[in-house]
Structures are given as structure tokens and as C-alpha cells.
Amino acid sequence: MRSKIFLILIVSLGFFSYNPILIDAANQTSVIELQQKIQALQKEIKRLQLLLVDMRLKKELVSGSYLVMDVSDNAVISEKNTHQRYPIASLTKLMNAVIALEHIDADRTITLNEDMLKPLGYSPSLFLSSTVSAKNLLKASLIQSTNDASESLAYFIGTAKFVSLMNQKAKELGMQDTYFYDAHGLSLSNQSTASDLAKLVTYIQKNHPEILEITKDNNFWLPDPSGKMLKFKNLNDFYRLPEFLGGKTGYLPEAKESLASVFNLEGKSVIVVLLYSKNRQADVAKIMRNLK
């Protein structure tokens, strides 16, 4: 199969190299018709090139499910088990961020109580009776993946209502195989597919690009009870890459590693979703290498 594809590519390139001669010899063919044929051939070459990328990635990636998609036209570059549901861990926080931005004033201050601080994922800068803006809770949730920050945003509206809004939004976006059980992703019942998460990332990029911007930040600080400023470390190692345009990582032992992000590859915005990955950094490196 691969040898056939290379043969077609070689023949196609040969066509382009003799393009001027063909124009001179084709007295019966108009320039417009020839241009149309060239455009059709260019599309076919692109399709074959993407097919080669897809074949290589299918052999190299170790994710249970993945989707690589060109944002400009939603063209799928490579995919595997895109409709298979998996627990999504902290990728849940992307939908949390959408609901928070659409239903809570970012400058609204929220006083933290015991119920808000119950989830695992404690931060010394989020403590009982402290007052934090919704904007800063959102940053804590997205940057350091702090679960009590996510819970605090949900609790402010009413946790049950907040999670209901998350599921309602999923339906609006056509995420038919997605279900949110909580606001932070600790439960294995938070499940989705690579296909559905690509829809969510697409919506975020178009309507809430500030979410992606926050996920690239590694300079966010809040005071602890003594007033000492503490840094929220960005848990997404991809923020260091110049190609990283934003997104979220997730991890639970049972869910393995996950990712839903946007990268700038060769001047194109590309959505990458990985679920149930043994090594998401290695998978992303392979995707970037194959697309460059």
C-alpha cells in the first residue's frame, strides 16, 4: 500500500515538473481547464500525504484513542477509536471553565467554605474563609488543575446545577457520548470521546480563547494564610513549547494520561486529543514530528 502511494506521489511530482511543456503541447485545452486539473491533483497529493501521516501515527502512538484535526476545515489528519468512551480526568475542567465564564462574573469574589475545599487537590493559597475572585479560581483550576478551585466555582452556583449546565452545554455542542458527573474530573464517571472533546476545544477556541491563554500561564500567584505569595505551577508541560496554543492535560491511574489541546504546526492550528495514553508527551512529539 505504501509503495503504491509513493509511486503516485512521484508521478504527480513529475507532472508538475513538466507543467510548462504540457501547457505548450495542450493546444486543445484551455488554461482554466488545466488549472482545474492541477488543483485537483494538488488536493490528491495532499490527501495521499495525510494518508501517509495517518499510517505512521497508527503504528507509533500508544493512546487508546486519539484525534488530530486541522482547525481551519475540521479535516481529520489521523484518528483512532474516536467514538470510544474513556474517563477524562481533569479534561473535565475545560467544560468547568466554559460554564464558569458564561454564568459567573469573573470579578465576583467568592468566600471559600469547607464544602468547597473537600475535593482532593488542595492548595495552601485556597483556604477556609479566604476570598478569591472567580477569575483567580478559574486560573487555579486550569493552571495547577486545583480541584478545590473547580469545586468552588461550581458550589457558588450550586454544584448540582453547575454540573447540569455542563451536561446541557455538552448536548448543545453535539457531544452525544459525553457525561459529566462532577465539576473537576476526580470521578471515573466523567467520560467522553476524542471526537466530542475536539468539539469542545473548537468551541473554546472560537468563543473563549481566554481559556487557552490561561493554560499557557506559568506566572500565577496567590497569598497563603500568612500573606506569603505562592506560585501555582502549571502542570501542563506543553506550555513551554512555542507551538502550544493552549489546552488541558488530565491523569487518573485508571484513566491513564489524557490531553485536549491546540498546537500551531507549520502555521496551521491543529487540535490534538489523546485519551488513555501510556505516554502523552511521546505521543505529541510523534504527532509534531510527522506533521512538520
TrEMBL record:
Signal peptide: none
GO molecular function: beta-lactamase activity; serine-type D-Ala-D-Ala carboxypeptidase activity
Coiled coil ranges: 31-58
InterPro entries: Beta-lactam/transpept-like, Beta-lactam_class-A, Peptidase_S11, Peptidase_S11_N
Residues forming the catalytic site: S90 (acyl-ester intermediate), K93 (proton acceptor), S145
Keyword terms, alphabetized: Cell shape, Cell wall biogenesis/degradation, Coiled coil, Hydrolase, Peptidoglycan synthesis, Signal
GO biological process, one term: beta-lactam antibiotic catabolic process
PANTHER family: BETA-LACTAMASE (PTHR35333), BETA-LACTAMASE-TYPE TRANSPEPTIDASE FOLD CONTAINING PROTEIN (PTHR35333:SF3)
Name of this chain's protein: Peptidase S11 D-alanyl-D-alanine carboxypeptidase A N-terminal domain-containing protein
Family to which this protein belongs: Belongs to the peptidase S11 family.
